[in-house]
Amino acid sequence: MSNFDFSTKLADAWFPTPLFTASGCASSGKELSQFFDLRSIGAVVTKSIMIKPRSGRPTPRMAETPSGMLNSIGLQGPGIDAFLGDDIPWLLNQGARIIVSIAGETVDEFSTLARRLRGVSGISAVEVNISCPNVENRGQVFACDPDSASAVINSVKMMIGGELPIIAKLSPDVTNIAQIATSVFNAGADAVALINTLLGMVINLETMKPHLGGKTGGLSGPAIRPIAVRAIYQVKEVLPKLPILGMGGVASGRDALELILAGASGVSVGTANFGNPSAVYEIQEDLRKLLIDRGFSSLSDAVGYAHRAGA
Amino acid sequence: LDLMRQLQELDHSSQVRSRCVRFKNGYRMSPINKNANQITATIISNKRIGVYHQLLLEIGEAVRFAKPGNFIAISVGGDYSKMILRRAFAISRIADRGEYRAVELIVAPHGSGSSWLCAQPAGIELNVVVPLGTAFKVPTEPVSALLIGGGYGSAPLFGLAEVLRERGCRVNMLLGASTAAKIYAPLEGKRSVNSLKIYTEDGTGGEIGRVTEPIPDLIRDQQIKVIYSCGPMPMLAAISRIAIEHDVAHQCAVEESMACGVGICMTCVLPVKDLHGEVKMLRSCIDGPVMDGEFVMWESVGKSL
Predict the structure, then answer these.
(1) ipTM of the predicted structure?
(2) Does pTM top 0.90 for this prediction?
Protein backbone atom coordinates (compact mmCIF):
# COMPACT_ATOMS: atom_id res chain seq x y z
CA MET A 1 0.00 0.00 0.00
CA SER A 2 2.31 2.68 -1.30
CA ASN A 3 -0.11 5.61 -0.92
CA PHE A 4 -0.21 5.29 2.86
CA ASP A 5 0.65 8.70 4.35
CA PHE A 6 2.99 8.20 7.31
CA SER A 7 3.88 11.88 7.72
CA THR A 8 3.04 13.90 10.79
CA LYS A 9 3.02 17.45 12.08
CA LEU A 10 3.83 18.93 15.45
CA ALA A 11 2.32 22.41 15.12
CA ASP A 12 4.10 23.87 12.05
CA ALA A 13 6.87 21.30 11.96
CA TRP A 14 6.41 18.55 9.34
CA PHE A 15 8.07 15.15 9.52
CA PRO A 16 7.98 12.39 6.88
CA THR A 17 7.60 9.70 9.57
CA PRO A 18 6.34 9.84 13.18
CA LEU A 19 9.12 8.14 15.18
CA PHE A 20 11.70 10.15 17.08
CA THR A 21 14.51 9.51 19.52
CA ALA A 22 13.60 10.53 23.06
CA SER A 23 15.69 13.26 24.59
CA GLY A 24 18.56 11.91 26.66
CA CYS A 25 18.35 8.46 25.08
CA ALA A 26 20.26 9.09 21.87
CA SER A 27 22.90 11.62 22.92
CA SER A 28 23.23 13.79 19.80
CA GLY A 29 22.72 11.02 17.27
CA LYS A 30 26.32 10.05 16.44
CA GLU A 31 26.30 6.83 18.45
CA LEU A 32 23.14 5.49 16.82
CA SER A 33 24.13 6.45 13.29
CA GLN A 34 26.23 3.29 13.15
CA PHE A 35 23.01 1.25 13.46
CA PHE A 36 20.52 3.06 11.20
CA ASP A 37 20.31 6.06 8.90
CA LEU A 38 19.23 9.02 11.00
CA ARG A 39 17.38 10.43 7.97
CA SER A 40 15.04 7.45 8.00
CA ILE A 41 13.28 8.50 11.23
CA GLY A 42 11.12 11.56 11.96
CA ALA A 43 13.79 13.48 13.84
CA VAL A 44 16.56 13.21 16.38
CA VAL A 45 15.51 14.83 19.65
CA THR A 46 18.81 15.80 21.24
CA LYS A 47 19.85 15.35 24.83
CA SER A 48 18.70 18.36 26.90
CA ILE A 49 21.27 21.07 26.45
CA MET A 50 22.10 23.61 29.14
CA ILE A 51 24.01 26.89 28.96
CA LYS A 52 27.25 25.61 30.51
CA PRO A 53 29.03 22.25 30.27
CA ARG A 54 27.81 20.00 33.06
CA SER A 55 29.39 16.84 34.46
CA GLY A 56 26.22 15.41 35.98
CA ARG A 57 25.61 13.23 39.00
CA PRO A 58 27.94 10.69 40.62
CA THR A 59 27.85 6.99 39.70
CA PRO A 60 26.13 4.58 40.03
CA ARG A 61 23.76 6.29 37.65
CA MET A 62 21.49 3.43 36.76
CA ALA A 63 19.57 0.50 38.19
CA GLU A 64 17.54 -1.96 36.18
CA THR A 65 14.04 -2.56 37.55
CA PRO A 66 11.29 -4.94 36.40
CA SER A 67 10.56 -3.93 32.77
CA GLY A 68 12.28 -0.64 33.36
CA MET A 69 15.24 1.22 34.75
CA LEU A 70 16.12 4.17 36.92
CA ASN A 71 18.59 6.72 35.64
CA SER A 72 20.27 9.49 37.52
CA ILE A 73 22.40 11.29 34.95
CA GLY A 74 21.75 14.87 36.02
CA LEU A 75 21.86 16.45 32.56
CA GLN A 76 25.53 15.80 31.77
CA GLY A 77 26.35 17.66 28.59
CA PRO A 78 28.77 19.89 26.70
CA GLY A 79 26.89 23.20 27.06
CA ILE A 80 25.22 25.23 24.33
CA ASP A 81 28.45 26.56 22.72
CA ALA A 82 29.96 23.15 22.00
CA PHE A 83 26.53 21.83 21.07
CA LEU A 84 25.95 24.49 18.43
CA GLY A 85 29.56 24.25 17.28
CA ASP A 86 29.84 20.46 16.95
CA ASP A 87 26.60 18.52 17.35
CA ILE A 88 24.18 20.59 15.26
CA PRO A 89 26.52 20.90 12.23
CA TRP A 90 27.19 17.14 12.41
CA LEU A 91 23.45 16.32 12.46
CA LEU A 92 22.75 18.76 9.61
CA ASN A 93 25.57 17.20 7.64
CA GLN A 94 23.90 13.80 8.06
CA GLY A 95 20.66 15.23 6.70
CA ALA A 96 18.85 14.46 9.97
CA ARG A 97 15.87 16.50 11.12
CA ILE A 98 16.50 17.95 14.55
CA ILE A 99 14.42 18.82 17.60
CA VAL A 100 16.61 20.53 20.19
CA SER A 101 15.81 19.87 23.84
CA ILE A 102 16.75 22.64 26.26
CA ALA A 103 16.97 22.63 30.06
CA GLY A 104 17.66 25.40 32.55
CA GLU A 105 17.69 25.98 36.26
CA THR A 106 15.90 29.33 36.03
CA VAL A 107 13.38 30.99 33.72
CA ASP A 108 16.19 33.27 32.50
CA GLU A 109 18.35 30.31 31.51
CA PHE A 110 15.57 28.89 29.34
CA SER A 111 15.14 32.30 27.79
CA THR A 112 18.89 32.59 27.07
CA LEU A 113 18.95 29.11 25.49
CA ALA A 114 15.96 29.99 23.31
CA ARG A 115 17.75 33.16 22.18
CA ARG A 116 20.84 31.12 21.26
CA LEU A 117 18.69 28.85 19.08
CA ARG A 118 17.07 31.75 17.27
CA GLY A 119 18.62 32.01 13.86
CA VAL A 120 20.21 28.54 13.93
CA SER A 121 19.01 27.11 10.67
CA GLY A 122 17.92 23.52 10.20
CA ILE A 123 16.16 23.01 13.55
CA SER A 124 12.58 21.73 13.28
CA ALA A 125 11.36 22.50 16.81
CA VAL A 126 12.44 23.13 20.40
CA GLU A 127 11.50 20.76 23.21
CA VAL A 128 11.50 22.60 26.52
CA ASN A 129 12.46 20.16 29.26
CA ILE A 130 10.74 21.53 32.34
CA SER A 131 10.35 18.08 33.87
CA CYS A 132 13.77 16.47 34.42
CA PRO A 133 13.52 14.75 37.81
CA ASN A 134 17.30 14.59 38.30
CA VAL A 135 17.83 18.00 39.79
CA GLU A 136 18.87 18.91 43.31
CA ASN A 137 15.73 20.85 44.09
CA ARG A 138 12.21 19.58 43.39
CA GLY A 139 11.31 23.25 43.01
CA GLN A 140 13.28 23.15 39.75
CA VAL A 141 10.84 20.67 38.27
CA PHE A 142 8.88 23.51 36.71
CA ALA A 143 6.34 21.11 35.24
CA CYS A 144 5.08 20.19 38.71
CA ASP A 145 3.51 23.62 39.13
CA PRO A 146 1.20 25.31 36.58
CA ASP A 147 2.56 28.81 37.27
CA SER A 148 6.25 27.84 37.05
CA ALA A 149 5.59 25.80 33.93
CA SER A 150 3.82 28.65 32.18
CA ALA A 151 6.51 31.16 33.26
CA VAL A 152 9.18 29.12 31.45
CA ILE A 153 7.08 28.55 28.34
CA ASN A 154 6.11 32.20 28.22
CA SER A 155 9.77 33.30 28.35
CA VAL A 156 10.72 30.89 25.57
CA LYS A 157 7.71 32.01 23.55
CA MET A 158 8.78 35.66 23.85
CA MET A 159 12.20 34.74 22.50
CA ILE A 160 11.38 32.41 19.60
CA GLY A 161 7.59 32.32 19.35
CA GLY A 162 6.48 32.07 15.73
CA GLU A 163 9.97 31.10 14.54
CA LEU A 164 10.18 27.58 15.96
CA PRO A 165 7.41 25.36 17.34
CA ILE A 166 7.72 25.06 21.12
CA ILE A 167 7.08 21.66 22.67
CA ALA A 168 6.70 21.64 26.47
CA LYS A 169 7.85 18.37 28.03
CA LEU A 170 5.74 17.52 31.05
CA SER A 171 6.11 15.31 34.10
CA PRO A 172 3.60 12.58 35.01
CA ASP A 173 4.43 13.19 38.69
CA VAL A 174 1.47 15.55 39.14
CA THR A 175 -2.10 15.15 40.29
CA ASN A 176 -3.68 16.66 37.20
CA ILE A 177 -1.56 16.62 34.05
CA ALA A 178 -4.33 18.15 31.92
CA GLN A 179 -4.20 21.22 34.15
CA ILE A 180 -0.42 21.63 33.58
CA ALA A 181 -0.92 21.07 29.85
CA THR A 182 -3.62 23.74 29.82
CA SER A 183 -1.34 26.24 31.55
CA VAL A 184 1.55 25.71 29.10
CA PHE A 185 -0.91 25.83 26.19
CA ASN A 186 -2.20 29.18 27.46
CA ALA A 187 1.43 30.37 27.83
CA GLY A 188 2.03 29.66 24.16
CA ALA A 189 3.26 26.09 23.87
CA ASP A 190 2.63 24.81 20.32
CA ALA A 191 2.72 21.16 21.45
CA VAL A 192 3.38 19.05 24.54
CA ALA A 193 5.71 16.08 25.04
CA LEU A 194 4.23 13.44 27.33
CA ILE A 195 5.77 11.94 29.49
CA ASN A 196 9.13 12.44 31.19
CA THR A 197 10.35 9.80 33.66
CA LEU A 198 8.78 9.27 37.09
CA LEU A 199 10.79 9.82 40.24
CA GLY A 200 11.85 6.55 41.82
CA MET A 201 14.37 4.90 44.13
CA VAL A 202 16.11 1.55 44.53
CA ILE A 203 17.77 0.51 47.78
CA ASN A 204 20.85 -1.70 47.50
CA LEU A 205 20.45 -4.66 49.85
CA GLU A 206 24.21 -5.10 50.27
CA THR A 207 24.98 -1.53 51.33
CA MET A 208 21.42 -1.02 52.64
CA LYS A 209 21.55 2.50 51.21
CA PRO A 210 19.96 4.12 48.15
CA HIS A 211 21.70 2.47 45.17
CA LEU A 212 22.02 5.52 42.91
CA GLY A 213 24.72 8.13 43.50
CA GLY A 214 22.01 10.77 43.24
CA LYS A 215 19.76 8.68 45.54
CA THR A 216 16.64 9.18 43.38
CA GLY A 217 16.33 8.61 39.65
CA GLY A 218 13.89 8.74 36.76
CA LEU A 219 11.91 5.56 36.07
CA SER A 220 11.54 4.69 32.39
CA GLY A 221 10.89 1.68 30.20
CA PRO A 222 7.82 -0.49 29.48
CA ALA A 223 6.86 -0.36 33.18
CA ILE A 224 5.63 3.24 32.71
CA ARG A 225 3.87 2.84 29.35
CA PRO A 226 0.32 2.64 30.78
CA ILE A 227 0.99 5.93 32.60
CA ALA A 228 2.06 7.54 29.31
CA VAL A 229 -1.04 6.24 27.54
CA ARG A 230 -3.25 7.57 30.32
CA ALA A 231 -1.55 11.00 30.38
CA ILE A 232 -1.80 11.37 26.59
CA TYR A 233 -5.45 10.31 26.62
CA GLN A 234 -6.33 12.78 29.41
CA VAL A 235 -4.59 15.72 27.73
CA LYS A 236 -6.05 14.91 24.31
CA GLU A 237 -9.52 14.85 25.86
CA VAL A 238 -9.16 18.34 27.34
CA LEU A 239 -7.07 19.94 24.54
CA PRO A 240 -7.98 18.10 21.32
CA LYS A 241 -6.22 20.67 19.09
CA LEU A 242 -2.86 20.60 20.96
CA PRO A 243 -0.39 18.25 19.20
CA ILE A 244 1.20 15.67 21.47
CA LEU A 245 4.63 14.05 21.11
CA GLY A 246 4.18 10.83 23.07
CA MET A 247 6.84 8.83 24.88
CA GLY A 248 7.11 6.45 27.81
CA GLY A 249 8.17 2.82 27.59
CA VAL A 250 7.60 2.34 23.88
CA ALA A 251 9.51 -0.77 22.81
CA SER A 252 7.53 -2.07 19.83
CA GLY A 253 5.23 -1.00 17.02
CA ARG A 254 2.15 -2.02 19.00
CA ASP A 255 3.29 0.16 21.91
CA ALA A 256 3.72 3.13 19.58
CA LEU A 257 0.25 2.48 18.14
CA GLU A 258 -1.29 2.63 21.62
CA LEU A 259 0.17 6.10 22.15
CA ILE A 260 -1.02 7.23 18.71
CA LEU A 261 -4.55 5.97 19.36
CA ALA A 262 -4.54 7.76 22.73
CA GLY A 263 -3.73 11.01 20.94
CA ALA A 264 -0.01 11.29 20.14
CA SER A 265 0.91 12.74 16.73
CA GLY A 266 4.44 11.43 17.05
CA VAL A 267 6.23 8.95 19.30
CA SER A 268 9.68 9.16 20.86
CA VAL A 269 11.65 6.04 21.75
CA GLY A 270 13.98 6.26 24.72
CA THR A 271 14.96 3.38 26.98
CA ALA A 272 14.33 0.81 24.22
CA ASN A 273 17.39 2.24 22.42
CA PHE A 274 19.57 1.04 25.29
CA GLY A 275 18.50 -2.56 24.79
CA ASN A 276 18.34 -2.31 21.00
CA PRO A 277 20.27 0.41 19.15
CA SER A 278 18.08 -0.13 16.06
CA ALA A 279 14.86 0.27 18.06
CA VAL A 280 13.58 3.59 16.66
CA TYR A 281 13.79 2.43 13.08
CA GLU A 282 12.38 -1.05 13.78
CA ILE A 283 9.46 0.32 15.81
CA GLN A 284 8.69 2.83 13.05
CA GLU A 285 8.50 0.12 10.40
CA ASP A 286 6.37 -2.10 12.71
CA LEU A 287 3.99 0.78 13.31
CA ARG A 288 3.66 1.48 9.60
CA LYS A 289 2.61 -2.12 9.02
CA LEU A 290 0.18 -2.18 11.96
CA LEU A 291 -1.57 0.99 10.72
CA ILE A 292 -1.88 -0.34 7.17
CA ASP A 293 -3.14 -3.70 8.50
CA ARG A 294 -5.89 -1.85 10.37
CA GLY A 295 -6.99 -0.07 7.23
CA PHE A 296 -5.76 3.44 8.05
CA SER A 297 -4.81 5.41 4.96
CA SER A 298 -2.77 7.88 6.97
CA LEU A 299 -1.13 8.21 10.35
CA SER A 300 -3.19 11.32 11.09
CA ASP A 301 -6.43 9.30 10.82
CA ALA A 302 -5.20 7.14 13.71
CA VAL A 303 -4.15 9.98 16.01
CA GLY A 304 -6.59 10.03 18.94
CA TYR A 305 -8.75 7.31 17.33
CA ALA A 306 -9.47 5.88 20.80
CA HIS A 307 -11.47 9.05 21.53
CA ARG A 308 -13.99 8.59 18.69
CA ALA A 309 -17.68 8.60 19.47
CA GLY A 310 -18.73 5.27 20.90
CA ALA A 311 -15.13 4.22 21.63
CA LEU B 1 57.47 7.30 29.69
CA ASP B 2 58.66 7.07 26.11
CA LEU B 3 57.45 3.55 25.77
CA MET B 4 53.92 4.59 26.64
CA ARG B 5 53.87 6.76 23.59
CA GLN B 6 55.00 3.78 21.60
CA LEU B 7 52.06 1.65 22.68
CA GLN B 8 49.94 1.15 19.65
CA GLU B 9 46.55 -0.20 19.02
CA LEU B 10 46.64 -3.65 17.56
CA ASP B 11 45.02 -3.85 14.16
CA HIS B 12 43.70 -7.15 12.90
CA SER B 13 42.53 -5.44 9.75
CA SER B 14 44.07 -2.73 7.65
CA GLN B 15 40.65 -1.05 7.51
CA VAL B 16 40.75 -0.46 11.23
CA ARG B 17 42.56 2.63 12.38
CA SER B 18 43.29 3.50 15.96
CA ARG B 19 39.98 4.10 17.70
CA CYS B 20 41.41 6.09 20.51
CA VAL B 21 44.39 8.31 19.98
CA ARG B 22 46.53 8.86 23.02
CA PHE B 23 48.26 12.16 23.48
CA LYS B 24 50.78 13.31 26.05
CA ASN B 25 48.21 14.61 28.50
CA GLY B 26 45.08 12.62 27.90
CA TYR B 27 42.50 11.44 25.46
CA ARG B 28 41.02 12.74 22.28
CA MET B 29 37.47 11.56 21.82
CA SER B 30 37.33 8.41 19.74
CA PRO B 31 35.27 7.81 16.61
CA ILE B 32 32.13 6.16 17.87
CA ASN B 33 31.08 2.51 17.40
CA LYS B 34 32.89 2.44 14.08
CA ASN B 35 33.24 -1.32 13.95
CA ALA B 36 30.16 -2.29 15.95
CA ASN B 37 27.62 -4.63 14.37
CA GLN B 38 24.23 -5.67 15.70
CA ILE B 39 24.04 -9.31 14.70
CA THR B 40 22.71 -12.73 15.65
CA ALA B 41 25.33 -14.88 17.34
CA THR B 42 25.04 -18.61 17.97
CA ILE B 43 26.26 -20.32 21.12
CA ILE B 44 28.82 -22.93 20.00
CA SER B 45 29.50 -24.22 23.50
CA ASN B 46 28.77 -23.39 27.12
CA LYS B 47 31.04 -25.08 29.67
CA ARG B 48 31.19 -24.67 33.41
CA ILE B 49 34.70 -23.87 34.62
CA GLY B 50 34.74 -23.68 38.42
CA VAL B 51 32.32 -20.93 39.47
CA TYR B 52 32.33 -19.44 35.94
CA HIS B 53 30.92 -20.34 32.54
CA GLN B 54 32.95 -20.30 29.35
CA LEU B 55 30.80 -19.39 26.36
CA LEU B 56 31.94 -19.59 22.78
CA LEU B 57 29.86 -17.47 20.40
CA GLU B 58 29.97 -17.71 16.61
CA ILE B 59 29.86 -14.10 15.35
CA GLY B 60 30.97 -14.56 11.74
CA GLU B 61 32.56 -11.68 9.87
CA ALA B 62 32.44 -9.37 12.93
CA VAL B 63 35.26 -11.38 14.45
CA ARG B 64 37.71 -9.56 12.17
CA PHE B 65 37.25 -6.36 14.15
CA ALA B 66 37.37 -7.82 17.66
CA LYS B 67 40.52 -7.21 19.69
CA PRO B 68 41.58 -8.13 23.24
CA GLY B 69 39.95 -5.59 25.58
CA ASN B 70 36.81 -5.08 23.47
CA PHE B 71 33.45 -6.13 24.84
CA ILE B 72 30.18 -7.55 23.58
CA ALA B 73 26.64 -6.44 24.58
CA ILE B 74 24.07 -9.23 24.66
CA SER B 75 20.25 -9.16 24.92
CA VAL B 76 19.15 -11.48 27.70
CA GLY B 77 15.96 -13.14 28.85
CA GLY B 78 14.26 -13.81 25.52
CA ASP B 79 11.39 -11.98 23.84
CA TYR B 80 9.10 -11.64 26.85
CA SER B 81 11.75 -10.79 29.41
CA LYS B 82 11.32 -8.08 32.02
CA MET B 83 15.08 -7.46 31.63
CA ILE B 84 15.22 -4.59 29.17
CA LEU B 85 18.94 -3.83 29.16
CA ARG B 86 21.80 -5.56 27.39
CA ARG B 87 24.55 -7.17 29.43
CA ALA B 88 28.15 -6.27 28.63
CA PHE B 89 30.89 -8.90 28.79
CA ALA B 90 34.61 -8.63 28.11
CA ILE B 91 35.79 -10.70 25.16
CA SER B 92 38.36 -13.09 26.62
CA ARG B 93 39.67 -14.68 23.44
CA ILE B 94 39.16 -14.35 19.71
CA ALA B 95 39.23 -17.40 17.46
CA ASP B 96 39.33 -16.55 13.77
CA ARG B 97 40.61 -19.81 12.36
CA GLY B 98 39.36 -23.21 11.37
CA GLU B 99 35.66 -23.91 11.51
CA TYR B 100 34.68 -21.12 13.95
CA ARG B 101 34.81 -17.36 13.78
CA ALA B 102 34.09 -16.91 17.42
CA VAL B 103 34.64 -14.96 20.59
CA GLU B 104 34.98 -16.49 24.03
CA LEU B 105 33.42 -14.98 27.16
CA ILE B 106 33.90 -15.91 30.78
CA VAL B 107 30.68 -15.20 32.64
CA ALA B 108 29.99 -15.28 36.36
CA PRO B 109 26.31 -16.07 37.01
CA HIS B 110 25.84 -13.26 39.52
CA GLY B 111 22.60 -11.52 38.56
CA SER B 112 19.46 -12.45 36.68
CA GLY B 113 20.89 -11.59 33.23
CA SER B 114 24.20 -13.43 33.56
CA SER B 115 22.43 -16.41 35.17
CA TRP B 116 20.04 -16.60 32.22
CA LEU B 117 22.96 -16.48 29.79
CA CYS B 118 24.87 -19.21 31.66
CA ALA B 119 21.76 -21.44 31.42
CA GLN B 120 21.58 -21.25 27.61
CA PRO B 121 22.72 -24.36 25.74
CA ALA B 122 24.70 -24.64 22.51
CA GLY B 123 22.67 -23.77 19.43
CA ILE B 124 20.77 -20.88 21.03
CA GLU B 125 20.82 -17.65 19.04
CA LEU B 126 21.54 -14.35 20.76
CA ASN B 127 21.15 -10.76 19.64
CA VAL B 128 24.55 -9.13 20.18
CA VAL B 129 26.34 -5.87 19.46
CA VAL B 130 30.03 -6.47 18.86
CA PRO B 131 32.81 -5.37 19.08
CA LEU B 132 32.46 -2.39 21.40
CA GLY B 133 34.88 -0.18 23.27
CA THR B 134 38.62 0.31 23.22
CA ALA B 135 41.24 -2.46 23.05
CA PHE B 136 44.49 -3.00 24.89
CA LYS B 137 47.32 -1.20 23.16
CA VAL B 138 50.44 -3.26 22.73
CA PRO B 139 54.11 -2.24 22.82
CA THR B 140 55.95 -1.73 19.54
CA GLU B 141 59.00 -3.48 21.00
CA PRO B 142 59.34 -6.91 22.64
CA VAL B 143 59.37 -5.74 26.27
CA SER B 144 58.59 -7.39 29.56
CA ALA B 145 54.91 -7.00 30.48
CA LEU B 146 52.97 -7.63 33.69
CA LEU B 147 49.34 -8.76 33.43
CA ILE B 148 47.25 -8.51 36.60
CA GLY B 149 43.77 -9.98 36.94
CA GLY B 150 41.30 -9.88 39.80
CA GLY B 151 38.69 -12.68 39.86
CA TYR B 152 37.34 -13.44 36.39
CA GLY B 153 38.96 -10.16 35.30
CA SER B 154 41.85 -12.43 34.34
CA ALA B 155 39.83 -13.77 31.37
CA PRO B 156 40.64 -11.08 28.78
CA LEU B 157 44.27 -11.09 29.89
CA PHE B 158 44.83 -14.60 28.53
CA GLY B 159 43.81 -13.49 25.03
CA LEU B 160 46.10 -10.50 25.41
CA ALA B 161 48.92 -12.75 26.64
CA GLU B 162 48.78 -14.73 23.40
CA VAL B 163 49.09 -11.53 21.36
CA LEU B 164 51.98 -10.22 23.47
CA ARG B 165 53.84 -13.56 23.21
CA GLU B 166 53.45 -13.53 19.43
CA ARG B 167 55.13 -10.13 19.46
CA GLY B 168 58.07 -11.41 21.49
CA CYS B 169 57.08 -9.88 24.84
CA ARG B 170 57.84 -11.62 28.11
CA VAL B 171 54.51 -12.11 29.87
CA ASN B 172 54.38 -12.17 33.67
CA MET B 173 50.99 -12.75 35.24
CA LEU B 174 49.55 -12.13 38.70
CA LEU B 175 46.08 -13.37 39.55
CA GLY B 176 44.17 -12.62 42.71
CA ALA B 177 40.77 -13.25 44.28
CA SER B 178 39.17 -13.49 47.69
CA THR B 179 39.24 -17.29 47.48
CA ALA B 180 40.72 -19.99 45.19
CA ALA B 181 37.38 -20.90 43.56
CA LYS B 182 37.21 -17.40 42.09
CA ILE B 183 40.59 -17.61 40.33
CA TYR B 184 40.16 -18.09 36.60
CA ALA B 185 43.29 -19.68 35.12
CA PRO B 186 42.63 -22.27 32.42
CA LEU B 187 45.36 -24.74 31.56
CA GLU B 188 45.83 -23.50 27.99
CA GLY B 189 45.98 -19.96 29.33
CA LYS B 190 48.75 -20.84 31.71
CA ARG B 191 50.84 -22.05 28.76
CA SER B 192 50.69 -18.60 27.15
CA VAL B 193 52.49 -16.88 30.04
CA ASN B 194 56.12 -17.01 31.11
CA SER B 195 55.41 -16.73 34.82
CA LEU B 196 52.24 -16.96 36.88
CA LYS B 197 51.67 -16.21 40.55
CA ILE B 198 48.36 -16.54 42.36
CA TYR B 199 47.22 -14.69 45.49
CA THR B 200 44.12 -15.35 47.56
CA GLU B 201 42.98 -13.35 50.54
CA ASP B 202 41.93 -16.45 52.48
CA GLY B 203 44.98 -18.50 51.52
CA THR B 204 42.97 -21.26 49.80
CA GLY B 205 45.20 -20.99 46.73
CA GLY B 206 48.69 -19.64 46.01
CA GLU B 207 50.08 -17.06 48.41
CA ILE B 208 48.04 -15.34 51.11
CA GLY B 209 47.56 -11.68 50.32
CA ARG B 210 46.67 -9.29 47.54
CA VAL B 211 48.00 -9.14 43.99
CA THR B 212 49.17 -5.58 44.51
CA GLU B 213 51.80 -6.59 47.11
CA PRO B 214 54.47 -8.15 44.83
CA ILE B 215 54.16 -5.55 42.02
CA PRO B 216 57.07 -3.22 43.00
CA ASP B 217 59.52 -6.14 43.30
CA LEU B 218 58.34 -7.62 40.00
CA ILE B 219 58.75 -4.30 38.21
CA ARG B 220 62.34 -4.15 39.41
CA ASP B 221 63.31 -7.80 38.99
CA GLN B 222 61.61 -8.37 35.63
CA GLN B 223 62.21 -4.87 34.24
CA ILE B 224 58.52 -4.47 33.57
CA LYS B 225 57.77 -1.72 31.04
CA VAL B 226 54.00 -2.05 30.81
CA ILE B 227 51.24 -3.28 33.11
CA TYR B 228 47.85 -4.52 31.90
CA SER B 229 45.09 -4.96 34.45
CA CYS B 230 41.49 -6.03 34.68
CA GLY B 231 39.45 -6.51 37.82
CA PRO B 232 37.66 -4.60 40.57
CA MET B 233 38.03 -0.81 40.55
CA PRO B 234 39.91 -0.55 43.91
CA MET B 235 42.50 -2.99 42.54
CA LEU B 236 42.91 -0.93 39.36
CA ALA B 237 43.29 2.24 41.44
CA ALA B 238 46.00 0.65 43.59
CA ILE B 239 47.89 -0.60 40.51
CA SER B 240 47.67 2.87 38.95
CA ARG B 241 49.37 4.41 41.97
CA ILE B 242 52.19 1.86 41.81
CA ALA B 243 52.58 2.29 38.03
CA ILE B 244 52.87 6.07 38.34
CA GLU B 245 55.37 5.75 41.19
CA HIS B 246 57.57 3.39 39.13
CA ASP B 247 57.11 5.21 35.83
CA VAL B 248 55.55 2.20 34.11
CA ALA B 249 52.79 2.37 31.46
CA HIS B 250 49.46 1.02 32.71
CA GLN B 251 46.53 -0.07 30.56
CA CYS B 252 43.51 -1.04 32.62
CA ALA B 253 40.05 -2.31 31.70
CA VAL B 254 37.58 -0.41 33.90
CA GLU B 255 34.19 -1.56 35.11
CA GLU B 256 31.16 0.71 35.62
CA SER B 257 27.55 -0.36 35.36
CA MET B 258 26.23 0.26 31.86
CA ALA B 259 22.71 0.48 30.50
CA CYS B 260 23.44 0.58 26.76
CA GLY B 261 27.10 -0.16 25.97
CA VAL B 262 26.93 2.00 22.84
CA GLY B 263 27.43 5.49 24.28
CA ILE B 264 23.92 6.91 24.52
CA CYS B 265 22.84 6.42 28.15
CA MET B 266 25.66 8.27 29.96
CA THR B 267 25.51 5.95 32.97
CA CYS B 268 28.99 4.34 32.81
CA VAL B 269 31.01 7.54 33.19
CA LEU B 270 34.35 7.97 34.94
CA PRO B 271 36.36 11.09 35.75
CA VAL B 272 39.28 11.10 33.27
CA LYS B 273 41.79 13.76 32.24
CA ASP B 274 41.29 14.76 28.63
CA LEU B 275 43.68 16.06 26.00
CA HIS B 276 43.85 19.48 27.66
CA GLY B 277 44.38 18.10 31.15
CA GLU B 278 40.78 18.89 32.02
CA VAL B 279 38.88 16.27 34.03
CA LYS B 280 35.75 15.09 32.26
CA MET B 281 33.17 12.39 32.83
CA LEU B 282 34.03 9.99 30.00
CA ARG B 283 31.96 6.99 29.04
CA SER B 284 33.69 3.72 29.85
CA CYS B 285 31.86 2.08 26.92
CA ILE B 286 33.24 4.49 24.29
CA ASP B 287 36.47 5.88 25.73
CA GLY B 288 37.01 2.61 27.63
CA PRO B 289 36.85 -0.03 28.88
CA VAL B 290 40.63 0.03 28.31
CA MET B 291 42.07 3.30 29.53
CA ASP B 292 45.47 4.61 30.57
CA GLY B 293 45.39 4.21 34.33
CA GLU B 294 47.32 7.41 34.96
CA PHE B 295 44.52 9.56 33.47
CA VAL B 296 41.69 8.07 35.50
CA MET B 297 40.97 10.22 38.55
CA TRP B 298 40.46 7.24 40.85
CA GLU B 299 39.83 9.29 43.98
CA SER B 300 36.89 11.01 42.24
CA VAL B 301 35.18 7.85 40.98
CA GLY B 302 31.63 7.78 42.33
CA LYS B 303 31.71 11.46 43.27
CA SER B 304 30.39 14.62 41.64
CA LEU B 305 33.00 16.70 39.83
Answers:
(1) 0.94
(2) yes
